[in-house]
User: What shape does this take?
Amino acid sequence: MKLFFNSIFVFVLLVLCSACEKPKKKIQFPKTDLTKSALIPVPLNIQASYDAFGLGKNTVIYTDDQNTLYSKIGQFLSEKIRFRTTLSLPLNASAESVDNDSPENSIYIVESKDTSLSASESYELEIKQDSILIQAQTPAAAFRGIQTLLQLIPEKRNDTLKNSPLWVIPAGKITDRPTFSYRGTMLDVARHFFTVEEVKKYIDLIAYYKLNVLHLHLTDDQGWRIEVKSWPKLTEIGGKTEVGGGAGGFYTQSEYQEIVDYAAERFITIIPEIDMPGHTNAASLSYPFLNGTGKPLKSYTGTRVGFSSFDTRKDTVYSFLDDVIREIAAITPGPYIHIGGDESFVTKKRDYKYFVEKVEAIVQKHGKNMIGWDEIAEAKISSQSIAQHWRTVENALMAAKNGNKVILSPAKKAYLDMKYDSLSKYGLDWAGHITVDSAYIWNPSTFVEGLPLESILGIEAPLWSETISNSSEMEYLAFPRVIGYAELGWSTPENRNWEDYKIRLAKQRSFLEKNDVNFYRSPLVEW
Ligand code: TNX
Assistant: This one.
């Protein structure tokens, strides 16, 4: 009997020993629920499997290395993971070079031909105990999927599950795609100039929330911010002023291209805006023949609008614009040129229409599609052109009737430069105060009564810069509201709910703090 018990004891010991020699692969993760993750924008569909993936020093990222764009995305993911966790994950490492005690702990980013992923920017993210698989038909879509994965990495690491730290990612499956193909924000670099580095920081932040457009308002009465080689005084003279009398500034063409490339790496399209025929004091100050009001020209550093105009009946104005648009089109890979067209209060109506039609032809001649603020719908524009609705509902409806697509930027809801409330340090209030909940609680699909859904290209939240002049001030107005606009552009109305959103928003705090974002701590959110 004693012998029997002894042999059992030895057997148990042997089993235990073999377990200590060869560590068990299965880790007992704490209970996780993927559906409870603080993802913004909220994905279309989430299924939890109540298991988890341990992101750790042995995780390897693999991509379709045939396609360099996918491997660039893998590189991007690796860099972001390093910033978040300090882990330095290899990309497409060969099996021999991987020192990996659990070789199946890998992230795969692969191109898929699956027809269920054919919608633009549609991706699938599947997280299992030993692998993460991101599938998409295009690199842009895979990139959106990467953001979802990044958002699932917890702030705190777990030091007890293994002998090296793990970041526990809840398992399950996400299938996702955007509602609108155009999800943007605008930055006014004309009223106050923002440096290349400041613009890049903004681009990087909005990419995390799956925005895909940055519209740059490059010219206005107070400054001209983009080098035009054939008309150098635009920046030599027009670039030197800004609101409040500061030094202004401008982007050389190569700096602008640096911004375009940085955005393209994040699958964000840059849309350059040359605002005209109004909002052109800085241009006319540089080249006085452009001016149509006949008033003497002085540099302008105030914040009034609607006092300047090009001379719409002068041929030389159009040859000037042909040069400007040709040069800008040549350094802009995106399909659009924005011509402004707003608040031309000193341009006669018939001159305004004539101007918009002539400029549309120039934009198209240089291979681009025209976008303009909603006033352009008053002219006879071709159905390819796009109207950006900001103030006048009739213009949006007229555009849709004419077959034009409409971008929604209704000032009362989507203007990032409106104050949150009367205590806001920066911002204007002509369209009202926009609290963080009010910015979120509206449905772009039905907001403009009578505007058919098919006519809506998407939404854009403009950030005008009369009252802000650096990243910190800009972030105070943009964050957190721009995060809500990203959700409005991507998600479905059925998946949105303020009570649920505000909890997910509060959880963005660690990301915003880690990225040194001066966000407004709205009292409506429990940060
Ligand atoms: C209106 S929105 C403008 C801008 C101002 C903005 C300030 C639009 C097309 N024009 O010129 O900067 O209000 O909120």
About this structure: Residues 305, 342-343, 373, 390, 415, 417, 428, 464, 466 surround TNX (CB under 6 Å). The first helix runs from residue 2 to 21. The chain is about 35% helix and 15% strand.
